Amino acid sequence: MGNATQDIENLIELMAKLPGLGPRSARRAVLHMIKKRALIMTPLADVLSEVAVTARECLNCGNVGTSDICDICEADKRATGELCVVEDVADLWAMERAGGFKGRYHVLGGTLSALDAVGPDDLQIPKLRDRVAAEGITEVILALNATVDGQTTAHYIADELEGSGVTVTTLAQGVPIGGELDYLDDGTISAALKARKSF
Amino acid sequence: MGNATQDIENLIELMAKLPGLGPRSARRAVLHMIKKRALIMTPLADVLSEVAVTARECLNCGNVGTSDICDICEADKRATGELCVVEDVADLWAMERAGGFKGRYHVLGGTLSALDAVGPDDLQIPKLRDRVAAEGITEVILALNATVDGQTTAHYIADELEGSGVTVTTLAQGVPIGGELDYLDDGTISAALKARKSF
């Protein structure tokens, strides 16, 4: 980093720890911030200091927010009896951006993984069972990633909830909007074919 | 961003303005920071607040640091009479990382560009002339990027300094260390051939 004084070097090192940034892009980002001090650096420092203190996980669903119970769990009109199970908070936000879901969420905090020795008790699966009973849930929607671990976890949860009286559903698999068949993997095409609907 | 409360949304928006980050990677970075609060977020907030106040450009060379005159300009032992001219601070840092240069720097703040209407007075070229006279400079090393604008600027500066008594040199062009000929562009190969040396 040459002669950048210690603070600036520390800043670059910390920025380089963020996902998607390496040492080179961290340096670029820091120089950009310093050039745009009033527009980016000062407001970023302020809001970061704020969030570093206030950010917390919702005690109910695991969403990230600035209160003990997140806005979604607080909202009365979202008590629809539908509970959407996601792997992590990024997936929850993706579902919210997509819109269309009016119920509440449950963040697992990962997927079952034999390789990484992640078992059901390392995830929020016991909590899920409790919530299904306590919140009068009628449908659990499994919105897990279409990966091997994601689908293993989905099957495990479906088994766990059997006999509890809730309907367990999962996101449809098929051709993504705007998708071109020639660019899709074979698995997606055959899944879409199997799940074909009358036109 | 769904229900992330306002502060978190602001944080994501500001992060997304950094070069190399978009909305998606900014969200990932923010979630990562929140998960690693003690390790990344709190220290980052502290050092960012610090740097947002203390960062400044060296009044002499244009390097970024936390004092009015940067460490390099302050260091007596770097008054070697050699002045290395670079486009911007990132290039200065790259030179320092490479090591080997013991003189001082001069940051132009860009390159001449007819297209973007950048003339000599928009850059630190008048200042460069002053420093050459005032600091007893004997050699000006042009370490500008090997782009059309960089080389145009180099020629302009060389013309400007003609008659001032300083030697003007430029970085050698040739095959980069570890470079494979088959992957190099034709311009580099012919420049390296023209500048061939006895073995």
TrEMBL record, chains A, B:
GO terms for biological process: DNA recombination; DNA repair. One of its GO terms (molecular function) is DNA binding. Keywords: DNA damage, DNA recombination, DNA repair, Metal-binding, Zinc, Zinc-finger. SUPFAM superfamilies: Recombination protein RecR. PROSITE patterns: TOPRIM (PS50880). CDD domains: TOPRIM_recR. A zinc finger (C4-type) spans 58-73. Residues 81-176 form the Toprim domain. InterPro entries: DNA_Rcmb_RecR, Rcmb_RecR, TOPRIM_dom, TOPRIM_RecR. Belongs to the RecR family. May play a role in DNA repair. It seems to be involved in an RecBC-independent recombinational process of DNA repair. It may act with RecF and RecO. This is Recombination protein RecR. It comes from Profundibacter amoris. The gene is recR.
